[in-house]
């Protein structure tokens, strides 16, 4: 949505067409954002996905195929199902703004298993030295909150690998609740001796770790 609106503002004389596999009522965007984009002159078509970019030495057209998006309720991932039907749209510039699945192009195949990277789900550590991953690379659920949480844990774990501290020990002491959530504030401030069920931080823990964190930053 942002890419389409910015393109419209940069090239006001051009026709900007935004095509998405979701139907218009299912777009993963704020309703007001979609409405404002249309008010700005962005043409919106739902239920199609790009199949082929056509042209001779330059882009001239894009072939789209009818599609339907469904959600895997077990993993939370969105899957695209191809349907019968196509359309052809003339185009001079294509902005590809997609990111529903991780790009494993540069990842060694031995590190990939069932569409995810082999990594510790708690720390994000892989078999490669000082290589930590987070977000859609390891999460079973495709949610922002899980991606942010795993990113925090991976950053703290990477720091611990540089300082010689145990990532799991440090994470366990700043853990909030029974899940994988941690208090990054507790790690940075050093107030992580005890965290109550509500997430309130008590006590003081390993302030030297925080001093090292600032030194590395």
Tell me about this structure.
This protein is of the alpha+beta class. The chain has helices at 2-10, 31-39, 144-163, 167-173, 184-189, 207-216, and strands spanning 17-20, 43-46, 48-54, 61-71, 78-90, 112-113, 116-117, 194-195, 201-202. The protein has a 3-stranded antiparallel β-sheet with strand order 3-4-5, with no helix packed on it. It has a two-stranded parallel sheet with strand order 1-2. Helix 2 (31-39) links the parallel strand 1 and strand 2 (43-46). Helix 3 crosses helix 4. It is elongated and about 55 Å long.
Spatial gap, N to C terminus: 34 Å
Strand tally, please? 9
Strand order of the largest sheet: 3-4-5
Return the domain count. Answer: 2
Q: Count the DSSP helices.
A: 6
Shape: elongated
Rg, Å, rounded: 22 Å
Q: Which segments are poorly predicted (pLDDT under 50) over 5 or more consecutive residues? A: 193-217
Mean pLDDT: 81
User: What portion of residues belong to β-strands?
Assistant: 15-25%
Q: Return the string of H and E elements.
A: HEHEEEEEEHHHEEH
- Helical residue percent? 25-40%
Main sheet summary: 3 strands, antiparallel
Structural class designation: alpha+beta
